[in-house]
């Protein structure tokens, strides 16, 4: 899943981390920097 790196999406990522196990998330900032996370139970 690729999402823009904005506070709303970071909050969504934190709230759904446990229920969305197995999803790999890329948060892409306007500057081109990327933050990644693996959601696992």
Q: What is the average of the pLDDT values?
A: 73
Order of H and E elements: EHEE
Structural class: alpha+beta
- Overall geometry comes to flat
Domain count? 1
The largest pleated sheet is described as: 3 strands, mixed
Percentage of residues assigned to helices: 10-25%
Biggest sheet, spatial arrangement of strands? 1-2-3
Uncertain regions spanning at least 5 consecutive residues: none
The total strand number stands at: 3
Distance between the termini: 17 Å
% residues in beta strands: 35-45%
What is the number of helical segments per DSSP (H or I, 4+ residues)? Answer: 1
Any idea what the radius of gyration is? Answer: 10 Å
What does this structure look like?
The chain has one helix spanning 7-16, and strands at 2-4, 23-28, 34-39. The protein is 24% helix and 37% strand. With 41 residues, it is an alpha+beta fold. The protein has one domain (2-39). The model has no long low-confidence stretch (mean pLDDT 73). The radius of gyration is 10 Å and the shape is flat. The chain has a three-stranded mixed beta sheet, covered by helices on one side.
Quick take:
The chain is an alpha+beta fold. The protein has one helix at 7-16, and strands spanning 2-4, 23-28, 34-39.
Walk me through the topology:
Elements: E1 2-4, H1 7-16, E2 23-28, E3 34-39
Task: Considering the chains and any ligands shown, give keywords for the structure.
41 residues, alpha+beta, three-stranded mixed beta sheet, 1 helix, 37% strand
């Amino acid at each position: 899943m690729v999402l823009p790196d904005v506070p709303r999406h970071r909050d969504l990522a934190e709230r759904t981390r446990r229920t969305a196990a197995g999803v790999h998330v890329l948060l892409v900032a306007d500057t081109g920097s990327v933050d990644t996370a693996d959601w696992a139970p």
